[in-house]
Amino acid sequence: MFKLSERIEKLPPYLFAEIDRLKQEVKQRGIEIIDLGIGDPDIPTPKQIIEVAQKALENPANHQYPSYEGSFEFREAVAHWYKDRFDVDLDPSSECLALIGSKEGIAHLPFAFVDEGDYTLVPDPGYPVYTTSTMFAGGMVYKMPLLKKNGFLPDLDAIDKSVLNKTKIMFVNYPNNPTSAIATKDFYNRVVELALKYGFLVASDNAYSEIYYDNYKPMSFLEVDGAKEVAIELHSFSKTFNMTGWRIGFAVGNKEGIYGLGKIKTNVDSGVFTALQQAGIFALNNYKTLNEPIRKIFQERKNQMTQALKKANFDFEEPLATFYFWVKVPNGYTSKDFAKKLLEEKGIVVTPGVGFGEYGEGYFRISITNPNIQKAVDAIRSL
């Protein structure tokens, strides 16, 4: 009776929703599921953060509408964290914005800056929201292939010049989901030069900056000279503090970018629940103490997964950050076929690379947010 809009009709099936449907079918057949698919940490949120949130929940003053941009105290804590962690100076009043998770900010950004006929530059493979949010805003997506031969960095020289002239936003995401690749300062310098030349906004999705290994420490895009002239950066509490369900994050950087994103936010949703902001302030002010035990657990799992995959003779690059492994699909399979076979025959959930874009074909993504690593790899190897 009711016809869906064209923008909805054009959407591909959301990858994780499709995987969830298949999982339920396999469960009904009595097969045990080991989920290495979605990047949702199994480790609880640190108890200290929960206790701060509980106390804040009891304060009636926090039960009213929150401010759209976030409390000044929250934005001040974000600015202090960026200074301590990245040595980046931010003005809390104009260069910081609270978000209901970084996904909200990514999804709303094109509405602020993209008109019909404008382009966004989107990494492929990449987080699907970069593409869908552009489509919703009426813009066009230009795919930047992430290839192994380039270290899974976009080839900036290969971007069509006619597209660059119509580009409004370039999305970059390092440490990268799904490939776990990292970016160099030289690459970021070249992105800044390109953005200044063509006048587009860079959106740096830095959600995985605090999940790192082996003495490597990811940088912020905003550390690069001139970055604040062209870029905003989005961050989330989800991975850093195991707070995926809490839905709290922030955007920082270029004042015009923050203003535009805030303008959309004001018109389509509300601010972050004040009690959550207070928990977020505590988390940021104590991030070293709270984040280190989390990283230690993922370091151990990363080492275990590396050894297991090597023993099973899989082709992959050992990650220096994120909790993902980007693994070549065995010969004779597409990524979807291999993922489906694993789920249906072994109860192992992995994410087919093609779900992140056409250039993800030939790979599958494993998440180490499940402790049953050896059991899962043994099952994969026995397929």
From TrEMBL:
It is an enzyme of class 2 (transferase). The keyword Membrane does not apply. Coiled coil: none annotated. Gene3D superfamilies: Aspartate Aminotransferase, domain 1 (3.90.1150.10), Type I PLP-dependent aspartate aminotransferase-like (Major domain) (3.40.640.10). GO terms for biological process: lysine biosynthetic process via diaminopimelate. Its EC number is 2.6.1.-. Keywords: Aminotransferase, Transferase. Residues 32-380 form the Aminotransferase class I/classII large domain. Transmembrane segments: none annotated. Its cofactor is pyridoxal 5'-phosphate. The keyword Transferase applies. One of its GO terms (molecular function) is L,L-diaminopimelate aminotransferase activity. PANTHER family: AMINO ACID AMINOTRANSFERASE, L-GLUTAMINE--4-(METHYLSULFANYL)-2-OXOBUTANOATE AMINOTRANSFERASE. Belongs to the class-I pyridoxal-phosphate-dependent aminotransferase family. This is Aminotransferase. It comes from Desulfurella amilsii.
